[in-house]
Design a protein that fits this description.
Keywords: Cell membrane, Disulfide bond, G-protein coupled receptor, Glycoprotein, Membrane, Receptor, Transducer, Transmembrane, Transmembrane helix. By secondary structure, the chain is mainly α. Helix 1 packs antiparallel against helix 2 and helix 2 crosses helix 8. The protein starts with a helix and ends with a helix.
Length: 340
């Protein structure tokens, strides 16, 4: 009963913060040409995937613990499963591409490409979306509505990713593959890349032995690498508990479900969707550029509202003054008429 009230409230906050934050990130990148760097294009692609997840699946998944069963039909069962897996794939594959980009920028800064970096980055982002869509289509094809019958002749509709006859072995295999593809392999690649970058950045010569321009450039690259690493850490925090619960439930639980696993189920479920709203907060806290643009948008909105209020106030004062002048003129004419 607690989850029936808590989960919708949490998902409402996720929806509000995530839609506003990711929309602002995309708007800032599209509006400002200087912000269309390679890392920011990947970050914009990441924000787009999160926004798609927030706008469609989140409103339906937010009611799972409130409604008695899945009332939305098979089409939405398949669509939400596809979009959740698509967003997950876009997120982790984009973070891997971001880490590889930071590795190249730090380890091979003098390497030159014949094509445009922007075009190359956009092509990579599109390829990531296509690969994630292909993987997500597998999830979509597995989704179906099952009717679970109880002993008292009651029934419940369940949106599942397996058929009943596959349940014993298939869900363990599916869950293990999702863990490997969407977590283990990318995180290992990212970890290796960052270990190599850390050895280059923190064990190389000090900045005092380099020119001021070179030291400033290295410091900028280090900040971007730390930002990307922070987003990766947030991804791990948000998704690892969900993978742990799913692996336990479908591979090793064997009827040992208790309150600990129930709480972990609810918490991990909320955390996995919370990942779609925390990245804009990380950008605001860790990126000077994004924070400056966020403040500019807020100031512009406040200035626009203040100007509107000022114009309304001026209009009201003008109207009041005109009314007073009319009343005074009318009173003068009345006095003159009485004198005559």
């Amino acid at each position: 009963m607690v989850s029936a009230y808590v989960v919708p409230v949490v998902f409402s906050l996720i929806f509000l913060v995530g839609v506003v934050g990711n929309s602002l990130v995309i708007f800032i990148i599209l509006r400002n040409k200087a912000m269309r760097t390679t890392p920011n294009i990947f970050i914009g692609s990441l924000a787009l995937g999160d926004l798609l997840l927030l706008l469609v699946p989140v409103p339906f998944y937010g009611m799972i613990y409130t409604l008695p069963d899945w009332p939305h039909g098979e089409f939405l069962c398949r669509l939400t499963g596809f979009l959740v897996t698509l967003s997950l794939g876009v997120s982790i594959f984009t973070l891997t591409a971001l880490s590889a980009d930071r590795y190249m920028a730090i380890m091979h800064p003098m390497k030159r490409y014949t094509d445009s970096p922007t075009i190359r980055t956009v092509v990579i982002a599109v390829v990531i979306w296509l690969v994630a869509a292909v993987f997500a289509s597998v999830e979509r094809s597995l989704r179906n509505i099952q009717i679970h019958q109880f002993d008292d002749d009651a029934s419940m509709r369940i949106c599942n990713s397996y058929h009943e006859e596959w349940k014993v072995w298939f869900m363990c295999f599916r869950t293990s593959m999702r863990f490997v593809v969407y977590f283990v392999v990318p995180i290992v690649i990212i970890g290796v890349l960052y270990l190599l970058m850390a050895r280059s950045l923190w064990t190389s010569g000090s900045f005092s032995q380099q020119s001021e321009a070179a030291a400033r450039q290295i410091e900028t690259r280090r900040k971007v690498a730390i930002l990307v690493l922070s987003i990766v850490v947030l991804f791990v925090i948000c998704w690892l508990p969900r993978h742990i619960f799913m692996l336990w439930f479908f591979c090793t639980s064997y009827g040992s479900y208790n309150m600990f696993w129930h709480v972990l189920k609810i918490v991990s479920f909320c955390l996995s969707f919370m990942n779609s709203c925390v990245n804009p907060l990380a950008l605001y806290l860790l990126s000077d550029q994004f924070r400056r643009h966020f403040h500019q948008l807020i100031r512009c909105n406040c200035t626009s509202e203040n100007n509107t209020l000022r114009r309304q106030s001026t209009s009201r004062r003008g109207t009041e003054q005109f009314t007073v002048e009319l009343e005074a003129e009318s009173q003068t004419l009345t006095t003159m008429s009485g004198t005559k």
